[in-house]
């Protein structure tokens, strides 16, 4: 399955939305690499991008939250930190074992569903706060 970007994922903050779009695309590329049975090298490339971009995006979001003294910064950062561990572990497993059905299903739940829920919940709240502060 591929994840679709639509307006229900738009926080209204330009930088965040741009990066979220990119993350969803990276996730779809990863899933496609898993589905196509592409070689280890190609899989590693999509994993590298996905993990690297996740780290960059979270750092940018956290910087923004600090800049505007977002009151839920610490808990939001904790969610990010936990997720980075999940993504890192899954990436290692995928590289070791290849895209087994079990691992692909974990990519869908632990990465895909987590990400969409995080965007629609935590990130929407944060973006609304930042927007109110910058108005
Ligand atoms: Fe976030």
Quick overview:
Helix content is 81%, strand content 0%. The protein has 135 residues and is mainly α.
CATH topology: Four Helix Bundle (Hemerythrin (Met), subunit A)
Helical region count? Answer: 4
User: Under the CATH scheme, which class?
Assistant: Mainly Alpha
C-alpha geometry: elongated
Question: How many structural domains are formed by the residues?
Answer: 1
Q: Describe the sheet with the most strands.
A: none
Task: Name the poorly predicted regions.
Answer: none
**Estimated helix fraction:** over 70%
Rg, Cα atoms, Å? 15 Å
What is the ordering of alpha helices and beta strands? Answer: HHHH
Structural class assignment: mainly alpha
Bound molecules: fe (ii) ion
Oligomer: single chain
How confident is the prediction overall: mean pLDDT? 94
User: What would you say the CATH architecture is?
Assistant: Up-down Bundle
Number of strands: 0
Classify the beta-strand content into a percent band. Answer: under 5%
The CA-CA distance between the termini, in Å, is 39 Å
Output the CATH homologous superfamily: Hemerythrin-like
């Amino acid at each position: 399955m591929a994840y679709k970007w639509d307006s229900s994922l738009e926080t209204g903050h330009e930088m965040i939305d741009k990066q979220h779009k990119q993350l969803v695309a990276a996730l779809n590329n990863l899933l496609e690499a898993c589905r196509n049975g592409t070689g280890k090298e190609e899989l590693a490339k999509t994993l590298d991008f996905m993990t690297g971009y996740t780290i960059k995006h979270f750092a940018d979001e956290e910087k923004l939250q600090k800049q505007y003294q977002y009151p839920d910064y610490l808990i939001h950062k904790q969610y990010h930190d936990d997720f980075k561990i999940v993504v890192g572990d899954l990436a290692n497993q995928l590289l070791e074992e290849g895209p087994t059905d079990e691992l692909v299903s974990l990519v869908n739940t632990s990465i895909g569903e987590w990400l969409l829920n995080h965007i629609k919940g935590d990130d929407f709240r944060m973006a609304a706060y930042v927007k109110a502060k910058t108005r």
